[in-house]
Design brief:
The structure is a single chain. The protein is 47% helix and 14% strand. By secondary structure, it is α+β, with helices and mostly antiparallel strands. Among the domains are: 10-135, Rossmann fold; 461-588, Immunoglobulin-like (Sandwich). The strands form 4 sheets. It has a 4-stranded parallel beta sheet, with helices on both faces. Strands 7-8-12-10 form a 4-stranded antiparallel beta sheet, with no helix packed on it. Strands 11-9-13-14 form a 4-stranded antiparallel beta sheet, with no helix packed on it. The longest helix is centred in the middle third of the chain and has 25 residues, at 331-355.
Amino acid sequence: MSFVGRTRELDAGRRELETRGLLVVSGGPDSDRSAFLGAVAREVADEAGLAVYRLQVADAGERSGEAGRTPDEVAGTVVEACRGGFVVHPCVVVVDGVPAGAADGSLLAELIGAFAESESFLLVGTTDAREDTAALPSDRCADGWALLDRAAVHCDRGDPRAAGPLLRRAVEAHQVAGDRRGEAWAVFLYGRMCRLRGRAEDARRLLHTARETFRAVGETPGEAWAVGELARLATGSGTPDPDALAEARRLHERAGDRRGAAWAHLWWTVARADEPGFPWQEEFTNVQGRFREVSDRLGTAWTLHHHALTLARADGTDGVDGTGGTGGTGGTEGTGERRREADRLFEGALALFEEADCPHGRAWTMLEYALRSPAHRFLNGEWAAEIRHVFHGIGDEAGEAWVDLAEAGPSPGGEPPYELACRYPTALLDTLGWTEAGDPLIPRAARYTQPEPRPGFPRPGDRDRPDDSRAHVRLTLLDDAPVPDVPARIALEVVPGPGHPWSTVPLPPLTARATSLGHAEIDPPHGVPADGAEFRFTPHRPGAHRLRFTVEDPATGTVLQQVEADIDVVPSDPGPHRPTPPAPRPSARRA
């Protein structure tokens, strides 16, 4: 039965909306109901990175020039307006003023039915508190496998932001059904999403958990995928692990998973493509044939991308052997032929990325094509702005930073710009090179993740300030592997450096305040002495939870430092259960 929300508490409403994708608020004064719906919508939209759209049923007939129509006659106009745009692209939709007094709840049922297969969130405000819930359709989020499929598509497109809400709902659906296999796949996709976001430790922990569960339930294809993703974690830090990728390929082949074997073969080839003497031309051709056998356009596109990149970099201008292990001819004629072949492959990759609707691959291919083909770049004076726009569309700020670097060229001191240094491991950035023409040779692994800035990473203005003269906030998780609905302890400590004035005297009476930015309780929520503070963190769903800690001087009310930390919560026992909702707590509202 679909939930019909009667609560007026913000956190509970937000949890229900994110879990089921639907929240119905009944009765109450119009202004109060509308304000509550707006607050919940903003909370969910901010967390998921989505737009909010509002529709007032009472205004629908007036806007269409058909005032005076009955509520049921207006229903078609409202539902079609939603189907016309809001259902197609993920967003948060608020429909207020819905009359629910009709015997069959026609408009309410029509709205919920219209969003049944959508990834959008639907909030409905009804004008009658006595609607007949029997008329509502069954919970649209019960199919955990369908949710996983949609989340995987978002990850494939390079847009992990939209995958998070789907995965949270999928975990609950599989837990309620007692499906360990489905829950293992959900945990695996959580790990993959964390890898895409550059959260290596969270990804490693989740992928290890998924791999062990796959083994326990005899899911060999899942185990192979988990082994491959774990190997790609090493590649993302600039240290490829070809042996682990080869093992993933063997596992896929043993399980009869031809598509998985093709992907493992591709990443194994990419990990070794820059080795002197490696026959990358032959291997890329073999991988391309594998993907075509299973009709995987996305895999074919990435194969063409990396094949073109290897050809373009093997022209003798960047210190790579001109033959590239292919036995090709050297000299100017050979270089020109390789560049023409690389252009052809880049164009083929672009076409396939567009067909597969993968903006992540399209943006990286556009960037590399522009850098490796001067003629292509100069024909389009807005090349950088166009590529930056595609990266921006999927929220990939790291990709935009690489475009900025390509436009600006190498820095006089040779150090990477702040926007890259605060996101990528030093080992990866150390492999960044430059051509004689001043174009960057971007590490291959840079396109495997979309890392966010690391908390506390010093900004350029702080670099002249010795590290030992600063005070740091140290957070320690005292309980391993947090699970839903079980408190975990977090210790906070202010640690002054040796050169800081506080290093030789007792700390002043500072206070620390903790705030949960997601579905979790944290106690105490208010300021406590920062010297050895301890908080109890109680999450209410699996996945990543972000907490904000603020250290203040209570005497002056000055905020001295504010840090945010992500804590990964693993699913609890996979037996059938529903997460226990926390008690309403008005103080949990965010400003």
